[in-house]
Amino acid sequence: MVKDKIAIVGGGLTGLTAGYELVKQGYEVTIFEQERKIGGLASVFDFEGTKLDKYYRHIFMSDKYVVDLCKELDIYDKIMWLSSKMGTYSEGTIYPFGNPIDLLKFKPLSFIDKIKFGLTTLYLQNVNKEKEYEKITAEEWMLKYAGEKVFNKIWKPLLTSKFGSRYNEIAMVWLWNKIFLRGKSKDSQAANEKLGYMEGSFGVLLDKLVSVIEEKGGRIHLNSKVKDILREKNGLNLSTEKNQYKFDRIIFTGSHDSFLDIAHKLSLNYKDMAKNLEYTGTRCMILKLKEALSDIYWMNITDQSFPFGGIIEHTNFISKEQYNGNHIVYISNYLYPQDKLYNISSKELLNIYIPYLKKINPNFDKDWIIDYYDNKSRFAQPMIVKNYSEFRPGFKTSIEGLYVANMFNIYPEDRGVNYAIRLGKDIAKKLLEE
Q: What is the pTM (predicted TM-score) of this model?
């Protein structure tokens, strides 16, 4: 029996995982990636004789899908499980913020508010009310149960760091799931949270997937932007800037905005649904420093006057010796395409950031900066609004044989390495069953 020829548009973790699952079953798979390197949001770049992720990255101990895949690919030994130090910058002070003792020392909250925060967090880590939390915003729920002070000092800054002025539209199901999954990542024998990172970056996983796909006969075309997908009687035509191809089925893993641009003859109902799906973008600056900015790995910024929402000091998690003694700091910023900070030059953005880095560490000097790297993506974080499951897109589109598997299919969990892999497995399973 001749098996279908399948194209996958997008060489991120979802596309690579789907390709891997399909070539294992003997399908003829071709992956098209518009960038010069594989990986999408999980891509890496050369840095100090090793690789570094373009966007800060770690996995949780509860991340079953990435762990199982690494075991299957015989690269599990590359995962390092390490304790991490979390913190919060609030009212001009850095506070450790990883366990109950840290909470007791957190001065911006009164004792009563600390109790409210602790109890609501503990509750959310241990209940599953997905359907109920779809019908209420995170702001509404937190104001009701945690109170105004807890919301304003903790949860509102987190929401605004991800969704800006539209923070009050985000459903509680999004925030609940982040808290729920974070609780599962706690080591039962220790107060500190253990997180995972791959020795040599998550590029190790990407490279292994590429290697196995190609060994099993799959093809990967880099620097190949897909321009058109059109259904004809005898299959699906796919056109890049240089060539035309014919496939039996196609999986598209990019944004719905991009999909609408290239997929022809979609139904009006499908187009209307897709137009309701919204993203925030991201701009992530990486600093290579001579000195450490702080001793915290993950620092949330609750001061709303700051132009960024978080500092992830990678070398407070992974030894700086892996990077020739340099300190690596990611500055997290989720933005909309119309935002000023999304559109200005890298140098302008850095100059805006520097005074705020001095607030985090008064000794910080711009001379500490050896180099900097600026990465951005228009499509980084889906907007999960109330009653999202009612219009959440499925894999099938209105065109026979054409499927979409992207961030909007990941629900109620937030997007990330683990769920990108699960999504790739799920869409491959869907095709195998049909």
A: 0.94
> Domains in the chain, please, with CATH?
5-80+199-277+392-433 (3.50.50.60), 99-184 (1.10.3110), 280-382 (3.90.660.20)
CA 258 from chain centre, in angstroms, equals 18
Q: Is the pLDDT of residue 193 over 80?
A: no
Residue 190 is encoded by which pair of tokens?
Answer: 């220790």
Residues for the chain: how many in total?
A: 434
For the chain, what is the radius of gyration of the CA atoms?
Answer: 22
Phi-psi region of 313 (alpha: psi -120 to 50; beta: other; left: phi over 0): beta
Taking every pair of Cα atoms in the chain, the longest distance, rounded to a whole number of angstroms, is 69
- What 3 state SS string does the chain have? CCCCEEEEECCEHHHHHHHHHHHHCCCEEEEECCCCCCEHHHCEEEECCEEEECCCCCEECCCHHHHHHHHHCCCHHHEEEEEECEEEEECCEEEECCCHHHHHCCCCCCHHHHHHHHHHHHHHHCCCCHHHHHCCEHHHHHHHHCCHHHHHHHHHHHHHHHHHHHHHHEEHHHHHHHHHHHHHCECCCCCCEEEEEECCCCHHHHHHHHHHHHHCCCEEECCCCEEEEEEECCEEEEEECCCEEEECEEEECCCHHHHHHHECCCCHHHHHHHHCCCEEEEEEEEEEECCCCCCCCEEEECCCCCCCCEEEEHHHCCCHHHHCCCEEEEEECEECCCCHHHHCCHHHHHHHHHHHHHHHCCCCCHHHEEEEEEEEEEEEEECCECCHHHCCCCCECCCCCEEECCHHHCCCCCCCHHHHHHHHHHHHHHHHHC
Exposed (0-12), middle (13-18) or buried (19+): which is 276, by Cβ within 10 Å?
exposed
Q: Structure tokens of 273?
A: 């649904």
Count other Cβ atoms within 10 Å, centred on residue 413: 16
Q: Among 271, 256, 254, 333, which Cα is nearest to 300's?
A: 333
Q: Mind listing the pLDDT tens digit for each residue in 95-123?
A: 999 888 999 999 999 999 999 999 999 99
- How far is residue 217's CA from residue 76's CA, in Å, rounded to a whole number? 24
How far apart CA 76 and CA 145 sit, in angstroms, is 41
First to last CA, the chain: 15
Please state the φ and ψ torsions of residue 249, each to the nearest 5 degrees.
-145, 150
Average pLDDT of the residues in 408-417? 87
